Amino acid sequence: MRSLLWLAVVGLAVAEDGLAAWLRYARVPSASRHLGKLPSAVVTLNATKGYPVHTAGQELVDGIGGLFGKKLTVAKSKPKGTTATVGTVSAYVDKNPSAAKGLPDLVEDGFYLKISKGNVLILGQNERGALYGAFHYLSVIAQGNVSDFTLTSNPDAPVRWVNQWDNMQDGGTHGSVERGYGGDSIFFWDGHIREDLTRAGQYARLLASIGINAVVANNVNANASILTPENMDGLARIADVFRPYGVQLGVSLNFAAPQLLGGLDTFDPLDKTVVNWWQGIADNLYKRIPDMAGYLVKANSEGQPGPMTYNRTLADGANLFARTLQPHGGIILFRAFVYDHRSLNQTLDWKADRANAAVDYFDGLDDKFEDNVVIQIKYGPIDFQVREPVSPLFTHLRRTGATVELQITQEYLGQQAHVVYLAPMWKELLDFDLRVDNKPSTLKSIVSGKRFGQKLTGYAGVVNVGTNTTWLGSHLAMSNLYAYGKLAWDPEQTSTGILKEWTTLTFGHDKLVHDVITKISMESWPAYEDYSGNLGIQTLTDILLGHYGPNPGSQDGNPWGQWTRADNDTIGMDRTVWNGTGFAGQYPPEIAAMYENIETTPDNLLLWFHHVPYTQKLKSGKTVIQHFYDAHYKGSSTAQTFVTLWEKLKGRIDKERYEHVLFRLIYQAGHSLVWRDSVNQFYFNKSGIPDELGRVGNHKYRIEAEKMELKGYKSYRVSPFEAASGYHCVVTETNSTVGTATTKLKVPSGKYDLAVNYYDMALGNSTWELFVDRKLVGKWKGDLEYELGRAPSPYIDGQTAARKTFRGVRVKKGSELKVVGRPDGLEPAPIDYISVLPEGTVD
Ligand code: GCV
């Protein structure tokens, strides 16, 4: 009983599945001491059920009830005692005309808070703003701050959208959510909108609490069938569950829908029948969803249809939709991610460059777009890589507004199976000064509209939550969604400040919990960059398959244009004007000059802009190749520390989330070594230049499986070669043969950590057992494809390579070490190597 009470006090009693994310409203420490500083009743002004002010009242009741155990009543007019009054400015001024003078100026969605001795005034410029104000107040008190304050908060930019890449149907190459790692779509199933949209409503609640005002629910690779009458009705149901949270619905369109769905023989944007068809679509959508946000369009990119099919400009394409939206007040986000993945030729053309495409296509169109067109630009010129320069297109649009597209789902950055806190990367990008006209021109000042004065600007975040209760597949990844909303509202906030808030709301107030999460999170992006692609070479994931595991060779020799141009002596893309693709020249002169010159190009983008020998000296004094080697050792060794750091939290947070995170951090630690060895081995083989510290290719604790005594197992040459230690692994001889790999240990007697590197393909669930002197050390299953959520793969490669470690195992000199592998389905229980590591050693 006593321990139960103690747990209740520290708020750990209940296991948590992550569904409530940062809106848990868990009891704050010493809650009862603060009751006098809280309101006793909620007064909602202009509150209609199903609209944000009403929701705000409900959240205040639930929030204060959960956080402090104080039960509030809801009243329409002022009751006795302290109150929380929430509503729009206009409703408030209607009732209190004399109060108007004292109120600050608010822009759309902005809010004003005044907290004084338990009385709380929450006013929004609109209903949505009032709800934002209520969430903000709740967040402040949830962090234990019940003191008086006054705050005026206006968003930095009007467009703060989320994009989901949800498919109408599961299956195909991308499953239910393209680049989604948190389960199936919460919106669609089997070609239709789900009947049960409970999760969609919960999602809107989370998004509203961080200031997001619209969600595009369907994939930018859009299926035309989203526009059938039945699916339009379904979209209206989604809009209905969003509306109480002030979240508007946006829809992705397939440019060829007039032909694919409408039966026309053309989708030429200047053809009258096409224009009329689209007008009919807009009218029909707005009949059902009068407050629809608008459209998102990907055109002429990666095989998608677009206006260029008919030799029309991208502006012709965007304006077609813009005009149909104008009578309804909608806007269109038109993506700048336009390139032809079929025609780029690396071998024949030194100057070919996918990075050039956006500016090449959009230059000259700035004054051609309708006023309700916004150009949505990925932060970098290629595709959400671990390090990219800011896209120069932001400097070419001065009349037309832009949104910066950030990616919360970690497509190239570990797919939520690796912790990578992205706020520091986004901050670097947003703070980058593009020096337009030699004047301060940070990216954040451009996307807020302040630099060039456009009205419609802002942020678009690709989120891709799914039905998993953790939303994104990992509890820690949710700090990225939180940070996205916070930065879109106010890019001046710091990465650590945002993290602190998120950690308190998600995991509570324990200082050690904060210290650990801060350390892991703040070290995670640098570590990931270190053990993936360095010096601006891009992430180096396999770009032809799942974009997940290491495969440096996959970048080159194909028309996708994410080239490294690595050969035996040199590496990097020459993007200079004098000798390369000319990309550097797309920037304003000061920035162009910086990138043009190898001396002034920062090391971390060296290989993005220059083609150099592996022996090129960096500003650090190291050569490029030695930097690669060192960085991979450094980054992967940082990833090992995440496990031990997290283990300090045992018993300090609920078991469910503790175990969930621990499992993934252990996996990440192992996979970071796969990254390290693959990338290092690949460039060592290419360059022939040994690691000065003699680590690359030398692994003294390893026993290669193919060199063990094999029964039922056979040696198998892995492709790409660098994905296996010694280029080989073992696989069972048939799908039903049990394999054993045995060896006699030569190490001195003692305790060791035994690490088995194996491959967990999505073709079955093999089992492995590890024995020392016939005693079972451990047994595991090849089921990571269900556990991790990252892209499944049927291959033996860097994507499926994984490590299982058993710590502190006692062995004797001459002990027999044996692995038994039982294949399942088409997965032949592959093993790469076993490391017998003196305790605490990593290799
Ligand atoms: C939705 C990358 C991704 C694709 C994505 C595309 C885009 O190429 O790999 O999955 O498609 O970007 O942003 O349109």
UniProtKB/TrEMBL annotation:
Chemical reaction(s) catalysed: an alpha-D-glucuronoside + H2O = D-glucuronate + an alcohol
Regions that span the bilayer: none
UniProt key word Transmembrane: no
Domain Glycosyl hydrolase family 67 catalytic per the UniProt entry, residue ranges: 145-471
One Pfam family recorded for the sequence: Glyco_hydro_67C
Alpha glucuronidase N-terminal domain mapped to chain residues: 21-137
Cited function: Alpha-glucuronidase involved in the hydrolysis of xylan, a major structural heterogeneous polysaccharide found in plant biomass representing the second most abundant polysaccharide in the biosphere, after cellulose. Releases 4-O-methylglucuronic acid from xylan.
Signal sequence interval, chain numbering: 1-15
Lineage of producing organism: Eukaryota, Fungi, Dikarya, Ascomycota, Pezizomycotina
Protein name per its UniProtKB record: Alpha-glucuronidase
SUPFAM superfamilies in alphabetical order: (Trans)glycosidases, beta-N-acetylhexosaminidase-like domain
InterPro entries assigned to the protein according to its UniProt record, in alphabetical order: A-glucoronidase_C_sf (IPR037054), GH (IPR017853), Glyco_hydro_67_aGlcAse (IPR011395), Glyco_hydro_67_aGlcAse_N (IPR005154), Glyco_hydro_67_C (IPR011099), Glyco_hydro_67_cat (IPR011100), Hex-like_dom2 (IPR029018)
Assigned protein family: Belongs to the glycosyl hydrolase 67 family.
Enzyme category, top tier: hydrolase
Main location: secreted
Organism: Podospora comata
Subcellular location: Secreted
Every Glycosyl hydrolase family 67 C-terminal domain range: 473-695
Keywords: Carbohydrate metabolism, Glycosidase, Hydrolase, Polysaccharide degradation, Signal, Xylan degradation
Domain of life the protein comes from: Eukaryota
EC number: 3.2.1.139
One annotated GO molecular function: hydrolase activity
